[in-house]
């Protein structure tokens, strides 16, 4: 019997913003809560299984309403005592802020500007996920 392969191209339906900071995840979530007047709450750790028998466990903070969902996800996790990245090609990024339903929240450029106003954040950038090899990792 012949095997058939299904190639499926999924799109990330969220604005993805990369953040570089030395802050711990709970402190960054608190600062973001203060700036945007939201309540990012620590959720159960996010576990992503990769092929080749590796997986990554990441801390995940979430804020959700009927119209928007905002996730603050750490880029670097540990698997078998070695670092594993959600987006390996963006290893310099510490956290990702994913905003689904951004049309109901605020313009992405405004989000970036507000994040840049936090003194402890060194760098903020809107990530073009269409150019990432690991873009499928952002679908969870």
State the gist of this model.
The chain is α+β, with helices and mostly antiparallel strands.
Estimated share of beta-strand residues: 35-45%
Radius of gyration, rounded? 16 Å
In the sheet with the most strands, the strands line up as 2-5-6-9-1-10
Looking at the structure, what is the overall shape?
globular
Structural class call reads alpha+beta
Order of helices and strands: EHEEEEEEEEHE
Number of helices: 2
Quaternary organisation:
single chain
Largest sheet: 6 strands, antiparallel
Total beta strands:
10
Q: Please state the average pLDDT score.
A: 83
Helical coverage, percent range = 10-25%
Low-confidence stretches: none
Q: What number of domains?
A: 1
Distance between the termini: 33 Å
